[in-house]
Amino acid sequence: MSSISGQLGVQGNRGGLDATPDLLARIKAVPGVTSATPSAEGQVMAVAGDRVRGVLLRGMNPDDFRARTPLAAAIDGPAGLRERYRGLCRSDGDKPIDWGTLKGFGDDFTVAIGRRFADLMGLKVGDRLQLVSPVSVATPLGVMPRSASTRVSAIFCAGMYDYDANFVYAPMIDVQRMLDLGNKATTIEVFLDDTASLGTARRLVTQAVGLQGWVFDWYQANAGFFSAIQAQTNVMFLVLTMIVLVAAFNIVSSLVMLVRTKTADIAILRTMGATRGAILRLFLLDGLAIGGVGIAIGVAGGLAFALNIEAIRQWLQHTFGLVLFDETLYLLAEMPSHIEWQEVAGIAGMALVFALAAALYPAARASRFDPVEGLRRE
């Protein structure tokens, strides 16, 4: 499992979800499902000295937590992977820190916290963290909120600000006790293989779960994030279209000036037998050549920029002290880049069509030119 959360989730009611072995077996039997892991989570208050912060406490079985690469890699992962994930949360001037270990995770009420959360609360491995739950408990002094003193056993870095700053992971049994869930879970996370259809898998998992809970996918769980990304994508498409249109107007102006300066040459070609169609094709090819060269340079430069965008961002930030990709706003520690070849081909094709359309007016004007008038002007 290489992701933090499953592609599908099974949510229980307010009283929790009874994640029985039979239910987990039915979910795992669905084609395309690789694993189904129960978890318990709830909002709690974290207190460290005079610092207080609301966090999401998530309980998992220790083996399930170790299997989540983005969570465990910075702690006990292989050397190359460990350094990569630790680098996602490293800032200029950082001192080496103790990331802890997961070997004792689950022996008692220990927690694994994100690097950003550790910085905000001033915590390090071995420190005590007080957790206060909104679930109350009756005591001789009256009704009091449940609280527990935990020990920080590890610090993780998932590369997503939301997780690194707001999530605290603890053993499943301790979180169930903290949230008064008994033996129940709040969610079953369902992981799918890369070839599985999300819609089909969701329908089959819903049938397997029945009335015991409702099934949601990762699009629904992150609807706000994807809506923002879609809005930015639409705006960028409009911006690119306007840039291409401006470039097309430049082609129109340059070809019009070319026609005016080559009046005599056009007249000589006409007197030598060149037809209007030949002149038209000549200037259309000229416009396509200008557009084609520009498109080739733009595509090559754009691909090179996209493939190295994170390195370029880091260089600009370190050189000029700029913040070009605020992780508190975009919730990611590094600027992602993924090339959609179909979109690249579509934009390049659209630009070529605009270049051809831009050449139509100057080409038509040149083809209608009177050779006698052209020679007289010369």
Give an overview of the whole structure.
With 378 residues, the chain is of the alpha+beta class. It folds into two domains: 8-221, no CATH class; 228-377, no CATH class. 52% of the residues lie in helices and 20% in strands. It has 16 helices and nine strands. It has helices spanning 21-28, 62-67, 69-76, 79-88, 115-121, 161-166, 172-178, 198-209, 218-221, 223-261, 263-271, 276-307, 309-320, 327-330, 341-367, 371-377; strands at residues 8-11, 33-48, 51-60, 110-114, 128-139, 142-156, 167-171, 187-192, 214-217. It has a six-stranded mixed beta barrel, surrounded by four helices. Strand 2 (33-48) and strand 3 form a beta hairpin. The longest helix has 39 residues, at 223-261. It is elongated and about 110 Å long. The chain starts with 7 loop residues before the first strand and ends with a helix. The mean pLDDT is 84.
Instruction: Name the poorly predicted regions.
Output: none
Q: What is the number of independent domains?
A: 2
Largest sheet: 6 strands, mixed, barrel
Q: Name the helix and strand elements from N-terminus to C-terminus, one letter apiece.
A: EHEEHHHEHEEHEHEHEHHHHHHHH
> How much helicity do the residues have?
40-55%
Radius of gyration: 31 Å
Residue fraction in strands: 15-25%
Calculate the mean pLDDT score and round it. 84
How are the strands of the largest sheet arranged?
2-3-7-4-6-5
Distinct helical segment count: 16
What oligomeric arrangement do these chains adopt? single chain
- Class derived from helix and strand content: alpha+beta
| Gross morphology | elongated
End-to-end CA span: 76 Å
Question: Total number of β-strand segments?
Answer: 9
